[in-house]
Amino acid sequence: MKEKTGKVVESLRTLWEIFWVSLKLGCTSFGGPTAHLGYFQQEYVQKRKWLSAHDYSQLVILSQFLPGPASSQVGMGIGLIRGGLLGSLLSFVGFTLPSVLILMVFAYLSILTELKMDWIHGLKLVAVAIVAQAIFDMSKKILSTTLHWLIALLALVIVLTWLHPFAQITSIVVAACIGFQYIKKDHEDHSSKMVHIPISKITGMVLLALFLLLLIGLPFISAIWNHEWIAMIEKFYTAGALVFGGGHVVLPLLEAQFVQSGQITTSDFLAGYGMTQAVPGPLFTFAAYIGMVIAGIPGAIIATLAIFLPAFLLVIGTLPFWISLSRIARLKGAMAGANAAVVGILAAAFIHPIVTQTIVNGLDICIVAVFIWCLIRWKMQPYILVLLGIIVGIVCYT
Question: Where are the membrane-spanning stretches (predicted)?
Fold first, then answer.
C-alpha cells in the first residue's frame, strides 16, 4: 500500500514539474518558434536532462515534417516522454496559457492600438542570444564530421534561398538521403539510448485516424448543422491542420476565414496579430484573440483548443512510429543527416527573420553580445535574462 501511494505521489510530482516548467517557459519564451526551440533545448536538455540532445533533435525533425506549430509540438512530445498523455497535455497548457490569457485581456480591454510597446525590442534581443547559444551547443554535439557541417550548410542555403513553407521539409529529406548513403553510424548506438514512448502504436493509430476523421468530417458537419460553434471549430481546426512553415503561415488562412467573412474587422485583426508578436509563447495563440473578439471567453477557449488539436493528434500519434524507425540500423545515417539539417535550419531562421528583423544598429549588436556572454560564461538562467531584457528595453528603447 505504501509503495503504491509512493508511486502516485511521485507521478503527481512529475506532472506538476512538467506543468510548472512549461508554464515558466510560456512566460519567458519570446521571439517565435525558433527561439522557443532554443529555450527548450537549454531547459529540457542542458539543465534538466529530461532527454538527450539526440532525442531532442528527433523531436525537432518530426515537428518540421508535421503541419502545425513546431515548438508546441516539441513541447507536447517532451511532455509525453516525461509524463505520458497527461504530461503532454499539461506541457501544452503550461506553455500556451500565459499568451492566451494576455491576448484575451487585451482583446477585452480593446486598448491594443494605444499601447506603447517599444520596450519589447529588449526581449527580441534576448531571443537572438538564446537562439545563438542553442545553435552553438547543438552544433558541438551533432556536427561531428566535415560531412555533417556540409549538410548543415546545404540546409541553411536551401531555407534561405527558397522561401517556401516546404523548404524545411525538403532540406531534411535531402539531408536524410545523403546521410543514408554516406554517413556510417556503426560505431554509435543511439538507438539503445532512445527514450521510451509511453503509448502503444495502436494508440498512435487511433489518434492519427481521429485527426483524419475530424479533418474530413468537420466541414460536412458544419455544412449540415449551421451552428456558430461548429463553424468556429471547423475553421480553426482546418487552419491548424494545414499550416506548414510556422505560425506566421496561419495568418492568411485565418484572415480568409474571419476577415473576409466579416466576423472581425481588418484593423482589429492586424492589431491582434501585432500584439501576438509581442507576447511570449506560440503564435497560434492568435486564435484566442480572434475567438475572444467574436464570442468572448468561450470563443477564446474553443478557438485555442481547436487550432492546437491537430498538432496534438499528429505529434502524439506519430511518435511511437517515428521512434521505432529511428532504431533501425540502416536508418541511423539518415537520422544523422537529418539532425545536421536541423542545425542548418535553425541557423537559417536565426539569420532571417530573427537577426535581420531585430538587429538594427550597433547598440543592438553590443547588447546581444553581452547577453550571449551571460549565457555561455555566467550560465545565466533564461528567465533572468528575460527580466534583464525588459530592463534594457525600458532604459534604451522607450
Answer: 89-113, 119-136, 143-160, 204-225, 237-258, 270-294, 300-322, 334-352, 358-376
